């Protein structure tokens, strides 16, 4: 019918409105969504002219199940036309949509069927792992919990994403470069339109968490200097941009690409007032977050990352952690750990080295055979394990508080005022009740 309409102007004028109205009614305004993905401003304007809802959710995506058979299943996403235009950084399309009333703060889930990771950023991946570590034996099943924390990405979140090698779009080099060049302009457009800097409400991600986690120096500088973003912005677990940078400092084979950027980013954040020794809810500083899972398995990238923080003034161990290390197991620091403390002190770091030395020597005298004291469960690296057990309780409570707030928001329930004083046992009882209610037990 479309081809037939192209043969006559009069027929075209008569049929075009019918086609667009049918598209709006039967195909969920696919003309608007597809035009936004391609950055086709004329197509966007035409779809809006004939009544396409500007915030209609997307139903045009296909999930490739089997690459050999090319079997594809349609999937319904809740992304709007502005989300897609923002993801691809189509500036003209974004401008038109915002002028026509698109809401930059509509939040959507961004989890796609495996292995499509085009909407996952480093920050969301790392925080999802933290949440999962505390919900392994949760009364609610993993799918329910995942939906709670996955909900909440706005258009700015998608703009700040790096291009993914597994994404369905932007695979050609020209497209990737064009997207990279338009990053600051796209972010500026959304922020001027009122987009929240909390880009993912489910995980509480801030725009700076995304940019520092992705080692995007120019975007980070833009947010700090042009937007006035808080360099110490915290997520619900107390992590700052410095923490996010540390969390991904040693991930994957691309470390060599980020090595020089890391020191530049740390310097940039410090110039704008970032606290390199800020502690998160679990009591970890950025440096300690980096070391948390790497004791005894140090490689060259690990050492490089450590000294990037040390050279910028990071304490090796915060005062609170130092107290715990010296009281929990009365075990001497390993030579590797002791060397890091010594190197930091040589560089003028503010740490009580004499106290570490004194207590370590005392412990060596008390345990010449290097045996663990009677009644202690510590093994060779037990101080770190005990540290995780003791300090992670606060992190576990923070995870439960965030899940509770997301639960109340999802089911429109009022938040209780006394949750800050709940123990982990209280939380377990609460989630047991919610599980019974949800599953109709």
Automatic annotation (TrEMBL):
SUPFAM superfamilies, per database record: Ankyrin repeat (SSF48403)
ANK repeat residue intervals: 77-109, 237-281
Protein's UniProt name: Ankyrin repeat protein
Biased composition range(s): Acidic residues: 362-388
Pfam families reported in the protein's UniProt record: Ank (PF00023)
Key words of the record: ANK repeat, Repeat
Domain of life: Eukaryota
Keyword Repeat found: yes
InterPro entries for this protein: Ankyrin_rpt, Ankyrin_rpt-contain_sf
Region spans: Disordered: 357-391
Keyword Repeat tagged: yes
């Amino acid at each position: 019918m479309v081809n037939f309409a192209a043969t006559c102007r009069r027929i075209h004028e008569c049929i075009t409105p019918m086609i667009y109205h049918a598209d709006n009614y039967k195909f969920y305004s696919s003309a608007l969504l597809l035009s936004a993905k391609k950055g086709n401003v004329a197509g966007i304007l035409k779809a809006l002219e004939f009544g396409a809802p500007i915030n209609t959710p997307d139903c045009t995506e296909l999930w490739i199940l089997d690459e050999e058979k090319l079997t594809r299943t349609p999937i319904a996403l809740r992304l709007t036309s502005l989300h897609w235009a923002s993801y691809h950084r189509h500036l003209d399309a974004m401008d038109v949509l915002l002028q026509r009333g698109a809401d930059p703060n509509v939040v959507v889930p961004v989890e796609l069927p495996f292995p499509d990771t085009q909407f996952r950023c480093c920050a969301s991946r790392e925080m999802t792992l933290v949440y999962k570590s505390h919900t392994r034996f949760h009364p609610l099943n993993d799918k329910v919990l995942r939906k709670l924390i996955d909900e909440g990405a706005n258009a700015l979140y998608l703009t700040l994403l790096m291009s993914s090698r597994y994404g369905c779009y932007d695979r050609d080099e020209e497209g990737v470069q064009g997207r990279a060049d338009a990053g600051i302009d796209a972010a500026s457009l959304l922020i001027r339109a009122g987009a929240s800097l909390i880009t993912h409400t489910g995980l509480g991600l801030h725009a700076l968490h995304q940019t520092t986690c992705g080692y995007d120096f120019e975007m980070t500088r833009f947010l700090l200097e042009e937007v006035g973003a808080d360099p110490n912005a915290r997520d619900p677990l107390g992590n700052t941009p410095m923490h996010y940078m540390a969390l991904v400092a040693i991930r994957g084979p691309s470390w060599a690409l980020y090595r020089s950027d890391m020191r530049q980013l740390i310097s940039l954040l410090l110039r704008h007032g970032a606290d390199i020794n800020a502690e998160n809810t679990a009591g970890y500083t950025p440096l300690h977050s980096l070391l948390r899972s790497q004791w005894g398995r140090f490689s060259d990238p690990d050492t490089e990352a450590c000294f990037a923080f040390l050279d910028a003034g990071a304490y090796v161990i915060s005062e609170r952690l130092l107290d715990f290390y010296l009281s929990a197991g009365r075990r001497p620091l390993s030579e590797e750990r002791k060397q890091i403390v010594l190197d930091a002190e040589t560089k003028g770091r503010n740490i009580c080295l004499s106290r570490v030395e004194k207590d370590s020597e005392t412990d060596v005298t008390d345990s010449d055979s290097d045996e663990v004291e009677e009644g202690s469960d510590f093994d060779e690296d037990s101080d770190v394990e005990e540290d995780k057990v003791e300090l992670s309780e606060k992190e576990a409570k923070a995870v439960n508080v965030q899940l509770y707030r997301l639960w109340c928001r999802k089911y429109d329930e009022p938040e209780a005022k006394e949750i800050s004083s709940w123990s982990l046992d209280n939380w377990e009882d609460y989630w047991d009740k919610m599980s019974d209610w949800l599953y109709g037990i």
